[in-house]
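Sample pair:
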Amino acid sequence: MKDAVIREITPEDNAQVAQVVRKVLEDLGVPKVGTAYADKALDDMYAAYDVPRATYFVVEYDGHIIGCAGIALLENYDGNVCELQKMYFLEEARGKGLGAQMIKVCLDKAKTYGFEACYLETMPYMESAQKLYQRSGFEYIDAPMGNTGHYSCPVWMLKKL
């Protein structure tokens, strides 16, 4: 998908982004409570990331959003750490290198914001995603950092920036 473009979200992208996230979570059989599925921000991601030191990106291909991810300050944590948030790709976008490109874009933005580390949470059975995170320099940690409200995501990883 060499014609896919990673760009910052616009207000017009909100509906498609919410649809992508919910579709991926439904396809994976992820619980709706304690995950991004239930996040109030999901229907207005543009506004949710229109705050200091936060950016949400989309992958657009042929006029459609096929993936997304963002970075923002890690909630309820006392430290200069951001979180890689709501990274989801439709099935047709997977395995094409877009995930690695998206992580790089997010981490580059995190560095410009001056964050010292990037944290993420995921599900145990999302093994392909975990391999991608490891290839991008994330390492497993033993306990959650902050309090994201995603208690159904018991795998925690961190990367020093």
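The beta strands are 5-8, 55-61, 64-73, 81-89, 117-122, 139-141, 155-160.
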